[in-house]
Fold these 4 entries.
Entry 1:
Amino acid sequence: MSEMLERSARIIDGRERLAMNGLYGASGTPAAEVGDGVALVEAFSNVVAFRTDAGLALFDVSHELFAPDARARLRGWCDDRVDTVVYTHGHVDHVTGAGVFDAEATERKSGAIRFVAHEAVPDRFDRYVLTNGYNGVINMRQFRLPEPRFPSEFRRPDDVYRDQLTLDVGGTELALHHARGETDDHTWAWVPQHRAICVGDLFIWQFPNAGNPQKVQRYAWDWAVALRAMAALEPELLLPAHGAAVGGAALVQTVLIDTARALESLHEQVLALMNAGARLDDVVHTVRLPDDLAAKPYLQPTYDEPEFVVRNIWRLYGGWYDGNPAHLKPAPETTVAAELAQLAGGATRLAARAEEVASDGDLRVACELVEMAAQAAPDSPGVHAIRAAIYEARRDAERSFMATGIYRSAAMDSRDRVDQLGTPDAQADATS
């Protein structure tokens, strides 16, 4: 068994702790051969490779910033031409490295690479162009970039399919299956010759990314269905797009079924409450992941988290209305904030109360109060200083990358406002 497969086994059975940075292979780390003619290059997004009689069949090509290193490490394992690339889905960390591989094929005069994907991938690329600025802002907030940045040009697939497609690449069969999960354009593949499944982002060594508050709809139930379909094939090798491969039928079954159970549990709980007439607020604060699943090392909420998945399930079935009639056609938030600040005796007093609540440990309520204070007095450096401190505390208290990125961004916004407005003046703020 390869070192990578031994490592994943130790993590699954609890002998080794999974570190977040362990999900991304360090630059220069050799490609790991995890089967006869099968390799995985760990990167920001992995490259999975199968050696065939026609050349290499790859699943994903990583992000454009990491693809040159990933390609070099792949070449340390095998120098065969690349014949076929399958996009597991259209997220930029999986597809924007295509230019690196196309350029190599041109330089080596080894023949054009065939790119294959689900038929919704080109639609995703069109949407990325349409919402380029918005996605740049999200990336800046989520990945702590200094400025908005998002690609606007993509290597489009040469061939697309709808439900299923079986490719024969140099005698190696790749059975492609469409599934909705993290995206609506996801592909997972069964490679019977190796009893392997290429899962893309349908297993990521963290709680499934089925919530993501800043992105489009995700599909928890469909995701679980796909995982169970994979498990039914009794694979012996699981090849993900993030993190290490998993080897051995028993271990592969364990991670697939546990992940499916987690998504099914949230889905069933949300629907039960919706069908009983509950509001979204009640659902969010009631639904919980079962304790046995919450303890799994490969289901920790370090990127996405169950609470966000709950909201996405609601959005899928219930739309944007949350059940509170005041939210159907609400007043502007700044107007409501000004009214509440006046009732509290001013924005500074409201912010001071937020500080007190935060010191008592209720950061959820503290964030609500300080946000109202900042909306009521947007030019108060004192209020913004309190807002920054509260969101910094909230960031430190959270585990998921989604939440910490947003809270960090909010804190930085207020720190910048304090720098622009000057040192807080208690006398001036007292009149806010």
Note: Residues 249-275 form the longest helix (27 residues).
Entry 2:
Amino acid sequence: MREQQTPVAYLAALLEAETAERSERRERRRLIDARFPQIKRLEDFRFEDNPVGAAGDARDARRGVLDRRPRAGRLDRRLGNGQSHLAIALAAAACHEGRRVRFTTLAALANELIEADSRRELQRVVGRWARYELVVLDELGYLALPPGAAELVFQVISERDERGSLIVTTNLPFGEWGKVFPDARLAKAVVDRVTHRAHIIETGSESWRFRHGLGRGRSRRASAARSGG
């Protein structure tokens, strides 16, 4: 086909291909730097297994994540019902749009901050977390924090306030966040920052893994019964 192109058209095609390849490399790098445990997509999320309105809430959250204004979001209810999937999918979409993203669990963030504090590097690490355009804070409430960690985590949340977006997944209603942040004033301050201009998505009260595992078990038993019959 090169023989049928003018030199200008051929160079334009080369430039377009090079630009597309560089864009793909940058996106792959952003996905790697985000440190997702695995890549998830919104298209694969089972909205039919979640409360009415979850799909619309997710679309609103996606728009909030992809615009340049700092946002917060909370995905809640029980472990295993897809909140981590949805959080990662929203964050991966942000990577696709060129945003700097980082995924972490609350326990991992707390441990990193405790280590940084012991090395007298806390402010540098808090500053690094503040520079991401979107942070996913997964599994709030699943594990107790070590002594003193709640205050360090608050520093990250506070430093990011009005500067970058935040997605939090949790199995606790706001009224029980005192289990994670034992100081009542600290818990209130965290809730205030997380709920400011936030999208709150409930992903159901029943575990998706439990429900579908139960369904597979029933199917296997029914299949065995038919074979035996």
Note: The beta strands are 72-76, 101-105, 134-140, 165-170, 198-202.
Entry 3:
Amino acid sequence: MSAPLLAVRGVETFYGNIMALKGVDMDVNEGEIVTLIGANGAGKSTLMMTICGAPQARAGAVTFAGKDITRLPTHEIMRLKIAQSPEGRRIFPRMTVYENLQMGAAVEGGTHFEADLERMFEMFPRLKERIGQRGGTLSGGEQQMLAIARALMSRPRLLLLDEPSLGLAPLVVRQIFEAIRTLNQTEGLTVFLVEQNAYHALKLAHRGYVMVNGRITLSGTGTELLARPEVRAAYLEGGR
């Protein structure tokens, strides 16, 4: 079997003296959607940020496409064809939709800008309607679509999505998850998804991991984890 596209081995991350990640092991293979679920404060976003180099792991290693990226600065990691749609969306509020997408394309050099812009508008028609509008005036769902589209404009090999459904209406959540599924199926995009909405995330993902207090406690296919009684009790009861 070929080596994973993203491999996390024995990663320990600290905030000051507080240990946030306690020896995390995790793989994402090329062409997979892998999700990480867990309660608030379990360390999910910390793992996502550690992959991106801020904060850097104090112990263990993160490799991407066979290259050790554990000690690389964030901007160098992003140049390796990794893109992130961060928690809280973090679009540029004073820039228009068009300008936000230009910023995403800058990493790639902007050579395919017009073609990629059309792809984004096909996926998220609402963005086309809002092309000249400032990011800060969009609805939460539109901002999330823009954050994902901005990440995709860099033509990543790995897309990192941090809590894409947070605070959004169920209809918008379904639309966003459907777009992720389509990208994976039609373009083979590899996706690592951190998500509190365990039901949607595990239905979408090929494989999943469960994190509790900075440790991976369970792993399996999305279907296997959906069927586990402890997962159902902790994350799915009334969670749809």
Note: The longest strand covers residues 18-28.
Entry 4:
Amino acid sequence: MLLYRSLMELLPKAVIILFRLSNFSFSKSQFEIKIGENYFSDNLIILDLKDSNSIVKGRVEMFNLVDYSSGRLLNPGIMGWYRFLPFMECYHGVVSLTHNLKGKIIVDNKIFAFENGKGYIEKDWGTSMPSSWIWIQSNNFSNPNASFMLSIADIPWIGKSFNGFLGFFYHDGLIHHFSTYRSTKLYLEVSGNNSADIKIENRKNAFMIKAISNNTGMLKAPVEGDMDRRIAESIDATLLISMLDKKGNILFQNSTNITGLEMVGDFNKLQGLLK
């Protein structure tokens, strides 16, 4: 997310470069994609893009990755047992909760260094995104090892749909898991078109979260396999998060303006209590 944010700040306008399908390849055994001379994996990004107006070249390495661990034997990844449901239109995975970066990207002779930077990697795969969702992610806190992600969605399945959520808060070496399939309650209140207040409770802690969208850019998203949908994402959203114990003592409290936030579709129907 931080790499994406930096490139968006450097590029004066959207640059669309088309590739033939024959230029695309991927690995079935590990997280690895190649598009022309561009390479993406869990430990390396190589960019080599150019058109008549812009040139983007560079190499960024990722290291000290923190893996997501569900903590249960038959619970692979952040989706848990939902990963085994047939006919799901979209699947979600977290590759790295947080990690360090080094390298540089050159955009039209402008150099952007990623030394001492922070990164995060997640992935989606399938034919279509949900009809409505709210997604929040940041690992830009005063605690350099803290990381947070939450997704709340109206999930289509076999002609119907259901509201669900999944996410985590990583802090002091511990992963606090939230999801519909765990002993977790979530309450969502949406204000207008750009603000969400969320309370999450599990057996040990409560989390108070407020997210406010700021500037947005348009991204492509799949609809029945074609990238025909346009969604708005803020990469400079404001996030306030507090973690409390059951006695109300504050264990963590911080805010940041480097946050990814998507509020898509009729997200108002996600409001209320989810458990």
Note: The chain has one domain: 2-274.
